[in-house]
Amino acid sequence: MFRKCYGCHSIEPGGAAQNGPNLHGIVGRRIASEPEFDYSPAMEAFARREEVWTAELLARFVADPEALVPGTDMFVPPVTDPEERAALIDFLKADRGN
Length: 98
Ligand code: HEC
Description:
By secondary structure, the chain is mainly alpha-helical. The chain is 41% helix and 0% strand. It has helices spanning 3-6, 41-50, 55-63, 65-68, 82-94. Helix 3 (55-63) packs across helix 5 (82-94). The mean pLDDT is 93. The structure holds heme C. Heme C (HEC) binds next to helix 1, helix 2 and helix 3.
């Protein structure tokens, strides 16, 4: 599942920002908190409203990035299948704390 994200995001600890920020430990991580990444104003504004990425917020984000964060720079096909989303979030979670 993470193949859909790999083109723009690294996941390993300390991985470099690519088109998108590194996603290491993203579940429970502060929104828009990668210092080396230049987030969109939309994502910065979202971070002031929501604070951290919960599994639930992440599921909503991948289901429809533009609906959750209007104006985000992340343009991707929505992950519409709930099972795919769950698998993806599990993958992101497993990475936590390494
Ligand atoms: C075409 C490139 C691209 C793809 C593919 C992509 N992203 Fe992104 N992603 C971005 C960009 C660019 C941002 C920064 C968005 C902004 O600042 O508005 C981002 C931001 C994020 C954030 C917020 C990170 C933070 O530090 O707050 C998460 C979470 C995320 N992406 C998850 C995913 C997941 C999960 C996938 C796979 C389903 C994915 N992305 C696929 C480009 C991409």
